Amino acid sequence: MRIDTRKQARWLVCAISGRIDGTTAPQLGRRCAAPSTPGETRIAADLSGVQYLSSAGLRVFWPP
């Protein structure tokens, strides 16, 4: 899995490619869980490059 982040106005955009599964989901959660720069108030996930998304990967986006 590859994660490229960029700032766009008040958004943190995470462009993700590859596989999001039980092995890679924790890394994604740490990297894109919350904006790290003051002023970034929103997060967008670009999943256009994702080849596979497991239920573990979905939990990163919809935690309990």
In CATH, the architecture is 2-Layer Sandwich
Return the domain count.
1
Largest β-sheet summary: 3 strands, mixed
Percent of residues in helical segments?
10-25%
The CATH superfamily turns out to be: STAS domain
CATH fold title: Transcription Regulator spoIIAA
Tell the overall outline.
Answer: globular
Widest sheet: strand ordering: 1-2-3
The overall pLDDT average reads: 86
Structural class: alpha+beta
N-end to C-end Cα span: 24 Å
Question: How would the blueprint of this fold be written?
Answer:
Layout lengths: L1 E7 L2 E10 L4 H8 L9 E12 L1 H7 L3
Parallel strand pairs: 2-3
Antiparallel strand pairs: 1-2
General description of the model:
Helix 1 runs parallel beside helix 2. The chain is 23% helix and 45% strand. The mean pLDDT is 86. It contains two helices and three strands; from the N terminus they run E-E-H-E-H. It has a three-stranded mixed beta sheet, with helices on one face. It has 64 residues and is of the alpha+beta class. The chain has a single domain (2-61), classed as Transcription Regulator spoIIAA. It starts with a strand and ends with a helix. The chain has helices at residues 25-32, 55-61, and strands at 2-8, 11-20, 42-53.
